[in-house]
Amino acid sequence: MYLTWLDNNSWLIDLDEVRILLDPWLVGPLTVGNQEWLLKVTHRTPPAIPDRVDLILLSQGLEDHAHVETLKALDKAIPVVCSPNAVSLVTGLGYGSVTALAHGETYTHETYTHKGVSIQAFPGSPIGPFLTENAYVLTGQTEGTRLYYEPHGFHAPALADLAPVDVAIAPLMTVKLPLVGAIIQGQESAVDLARSLCLRYLLPTGAGQAVDYAGLLPSLLKGEGGPAECRALLAQAGLATEVLEPKPGDCLSIAPASSPETPSVAA
Fold first, then answer.
1. Which range marks the domain in which residue 127 is found?
2. CA geometry: angle at 202 spanning 201 and 206, to 5°?
3. Domain count, the chain
4. CATH number of the domain that 106 lies in?
């Protein structure tokens, strides 16, 4: 398995010869409802669009996970798997193969040479009182390597039935908004996740590094914790989960659990 962090919540996942572009934001600024006064995030150096993408995977229908300008720039022939909340957006942009996964449903993307990757949807981030977006478990059908992704730190109890999981991509920092509370859960949430999934590795997501923030919203947000604090909490809990910290553009090589190889940054 190869995991390339494209900054923020965007990842390129190579698993069993399937290249999956996850929650991509690669083109133009990131805003909320086109209200730049509220939030505008820009890449210092925009990531390149990958030369090959076999599948686009969207966890939410919100702008920071289903970024319109990026989706406009990608090939509309690429199949899309998404939360039900993102369906109207991607179909409206002209994508012809769109699969919405409700919680508990599974999609399998096969290749000519490999058994492919299965993607199972779980409850993820609550968006208001009536909508819960998706978390995903990706399983390589050849070697059984398994990855979990949820970008806001809301992890379903049913995930424990899937343990052990090799890698989780989840926030390690808690982010709070005045009068609202935690909108992103890290720290203890990440430790509980590591324990329930018997994780080998934990990778942070959401905390953009090579980006610049503007607008009112960033000044109101308060962040607590991070990778170092998470390592300390994992040690206190007696967990062997290793926290990896890729930089934007790094490609991590993750070997199957049966392999003696340790994670490395691929050339």
1. 2-248
2. 150
3. 1
4. 3.60.15.10
In angstroms, rounded to a whole number, what is the distance separating the alpha carbons of residues 218 and 32?
A: 12
Residue 105 within any structural domain of the chain: yes
Query: What is the sign, positive or negative, of the torsion defined by CA atoms of 250, 5, 194, 184?
Result: positive
pLDDT tens for 55-70 read 999 999 999 999 999 9
pTM: 0.95
C-alpha 27/C-alpha 38 separation (Å) is 19
Rounded Cα distance between 186 and 224, Å, is 8
Token readout for 19 is 């290249």
- Please indicate, yes or no, if residue 33 is contained in any of the structural domains: yes
* 92 confidence band (pLDDT: 50, 70, 90): very high
How far is the C-alpha of 67 from the C-alpha of 61, rounded, in Å? 9
Written as six digits, the tokens of 6 are 């494209």
Q: Does a structural domain hold residue 223?
A: yes
Asked if residue 266 belongs to a domain, the reply is no
